[in-house]
C-alpha cells in the first residue's frame, strides 16, 4: 500500500513530530524515512555543537548564532525557536521547494516551531511523542551519556512543560514499545493520504 500512496496523491504533505528530549522521536522519524521512500526529512539549522555521530547537512545544518540571528532579519525561517539555550530553525525556502515538487516532509521540531508551522500550513499533520513516564524519560536521558547534569535537569524541566502541550497536536503516541509506536506513526502517515 505504501508504494501506491505517492502515486495516488501527487500533493506533498507535511508531518510535524515533536517530543521531549529522550522520548524516541528521532528514532521513530528515521524509521518512517526507511518505511516511506516518498518522505523526506526536513533538516533544521541549529547553533548547538554537533553530537558525536551527527553530520552536517544530514542531521542538521550547524551555523553560528550570529548567522542565525542575521537570517531572522532576512525572514529566512518558516519557524525558529530557542531551545535549551540554542537556536533552531527551519528554512521556509527548503519547505516550499519540497512541497512544490510534490514531496512530503517530516519535520522533527519543538512545540514552538510546530505551532508556527501549523499556523503557516494549517493542513500539516501534527504528532506528539510521549515517554511512557517521567521516570523512564529521565533514565533515557542519562543512558544517552551526551549531556551534563545541568543539561539533563534543564531538559527534564522543559519536558514537563512540553508534555502539557500535547493536546495541541492532532495525534499523540506513547513510546513505551518502539515497535508499537513505529506502527502507530506509520498508520497516521498512511491515513493522511487516503
Structural key phrases:
five-stranded parallel beta sheet; disordered N terminus; 9 strands; Rossmann fold; globular; 194 residues; alpha/beta
Describe the structure in your own words.
This protein has 194 residues and is α/β, with parallel strands linked by helices. The protein has one domain: Rossmann fold (3-Layer(aba) Sandwich). The chain is 44% helix and 21% strand. The chain has eight helices and nine strands. It has helices at residues 2-8, 25-35, 65-73, 92-100, 111-120, 134-144, 149-163, 178-191, and strands spanning 14-18, 39-42, 45-46, 61-62, 77-83, 86-91, 104-108, 125-130, 171-174. Strands 2-7-1-8-9 form a five-stranded parallel sheet, with helices on both faces. A four-stranded mixed sheet has the order 4-3-6-5. It is globular. The chain starts with a helix and ends with a helix.
CATH superfamily: P-loop containing nucleotide triphosphate hydrolases
Write down how many β-strands occur, each being a DSSP E stretch of 2 or more residues.
Answer: 9
- Which descriptor suits the 3D outline? globular
Strand order across the biggest sheet?
A: 2-7-1-8-9
The major beta sheet can be summarized as: 5 strands, parallel
The succession of helices and strands, N to C, reads HEHEEEHEEHEHEHHEH
Q: How many separate helices?
A: 8
- What gyration radius follows from the Cα positions, in whole Å? 16 Å
How many domains comprise the coordinates?
1
CATH class: Alpha Beta
| Beta-strand residue percentage | 15-25%
Structural class: alpha/beta
- End-to-end Cα distance: 11 Å
- Would you give the CATH topology? Rossmann fold
Query: Overall mean pLDDT score?
Result: 87
Oligomerization state: single chain
- Give the CATH architecture: 3-Layer(aba) Sandwich
Query: What low-confidence regions span 5 or more consecutive residues with pLDDT below 50?
Result: 1-8
* Share in helix: 40-55%
Amino acid at each position: 500500500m505504501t508504494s501506491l500512496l505517492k502515486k495516488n496523491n501527487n500533493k506533498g504533505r507535511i508531518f510535524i513530530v515533536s517530543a521531549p528530549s529522550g522520548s524516541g522521536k528521532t528514532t521513530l522519524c528515521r524509521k518512517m524515512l526507511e518505511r516511506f521512500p516518498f518522505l523526506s526529512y526536513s533538516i533544521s539549522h541549529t547553533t548547538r555543537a554537533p553530537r558525536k555521530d551527527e553530520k552536517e547537512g544530514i542531521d542538521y545544518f550547524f551555523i553560528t548564532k550570529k548567522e542565525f540571528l542575521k537570517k531572522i532579519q532576512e525572514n529566512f525561517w518558516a519557524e525558529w525557536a530557542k531551545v535549551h539555550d540554542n537556536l533552531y530553525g527551519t528554512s521556509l525556502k527548503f519547505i516550499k521547494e519540497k512541497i512544490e515538487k510534490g514531496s512530503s516532509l517530516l519535520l522533527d521540531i519543538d512545540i514552538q516551531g510546530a505551532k508556527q508551522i501549523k499556523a503557516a500550513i494549517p493542513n500539516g499533520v501534527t504528532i506528539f511523542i510521549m515517554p511512557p513516564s517521567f521516570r523512564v524519560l529521565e533514565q533515557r536521558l542519562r543512558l544517552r551519556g551526551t549531556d551534563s547534569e545541568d543539561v539533563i535537569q534543564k531538559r527534564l524541566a522543559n519536558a514537563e512543560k512540553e508534555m502539557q502541550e500535547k493536546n495541541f497536536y492532532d495525534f499523540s503516541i506513547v513510546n513505551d514499545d518502539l515497535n508499537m509506536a513505529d506502527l502507530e506513526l506509520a498508520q497516521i502517515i498512511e491515513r493522511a493520504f487516503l
